[in-house]
């Protein structure tokens, strides 16, 4: 496929990545394909629900990043992919797959996408969304309880045992691989407009 613009959007859980991505999709619609690193969590059909619930989902090893890289290469070549689908309510991959068609702009989003050099190398623009830790925790609680069927206690326990330490060990250091750091994600209208203009320019030229 001629000239694909690949944009990576990373940042801690609850930082505002989804809001920023949604703003891009709302603006450009069909011209954008969004791929979430979360859909590439490894399948664990061999484990019970309780065992899966205890896994560390904030460590780079939790993801099948090699498969994501392979899929991004195919999309760049103009070929569709079958993206895995992750089901948060059962802590496992769903039986479904999602047909993803190549588009002029591909947005890759996830907490750890800048931790992998090979994944970074696939991206033309790398954006890190930054937010205060307390804000991120509040957003995570609200999201996981409301949308993912978790209890307040389980969300807080997961945050303290894996999310916070993994953020400090992997996510925060990966910020150095970004081209642009955006405080407050989708609520940062100045940064958002700069990103939108860069995408408009690419679509015009493509």
TrEMBL record:
<dbReference type="InterPro" id="IPR026008">
    <property type="entry name" value="Uridine_kinase"/>
</dbReference>
<comment type="pathway">
    <text>Pyrimidine metabolism; CTP biosynthesis via salvage pathway; CTP from cytidine: step 1/3.</text>
</comment>
<dbReference type="InterPro" id="IPR006083">
    <property type="entry name" value="PRK/URK"/>
</dbReference>
<feature type="binding site">
    <location>
        <begin position="11"/>
        <end position="18"/>
    </location>
    <ligand>
        <name>ATP</name>
    </ligand>
</feature>
<dbReference type="InterPro" id="IPR027417">
    <property type="entry name" value="P-loop_NTPase"/>
</dbReference>
<dbReference type="GO" id="GO:0044206">
    <property type="term" value="P:UMP salvage"/>
</dbReference>
<keyword id="KW-0808">Transferase</keyword>
<feature type="domain" description="Phosphoribulokinase/uridine kinase">
    <location>
        <begin position="6"/>
        <end position="190"/>
    </location>
</feature>
<keyword id="KW-0418">Kinase</keyword>
<comment type="similarity">
    <text>Belongs to the uridine kinase family.</text>
</comment>
<keyword id="KW-0547">Nucleotide-binding</keyword>
<dbReference type="InterPro" id="IPR000764">
    <property type="entry name" value="Uridine_kinase-like"/>
</dbReference>
<keyword id="KW-0963">Cytoplasm</keyword>
<dbReference type="GO" id="GO:0004849">
    <property type="term" value="F:uridine kinase activity"/>
</dbReference>
<dbReference type="GO" id="GO:0044211">
    <property type="term" value="P:CTP salvage"/>
</dbReference>
<dbReference type="Pfam" id="PF00485">
    <property type="entry name" value="PRK"/>
</dbReference>
<protein>
    <recommendedName>
        <fullName>Uridine kinase</fullName>
        <ecNumber>2.7.1.48</ecNumber>
    </recommendedName>
</protein>
<dbReference type="GO" id="GO:0005524">
    <property type="term" value="F:ATP binding"/>
</dbReference>
<dbReference type="GO" id="GO:0005737">
    <property type="term" value="C:cytoplasm"/>
</dbReference>
<keyword id="KW-0067">ATP-binding</keyword>
<comment type="pathway">
    <text>Pyrimidine metabolism; UMP biosynthesis via salvage pathway; UMP from uridine: step 1/1.</text>
</comment>
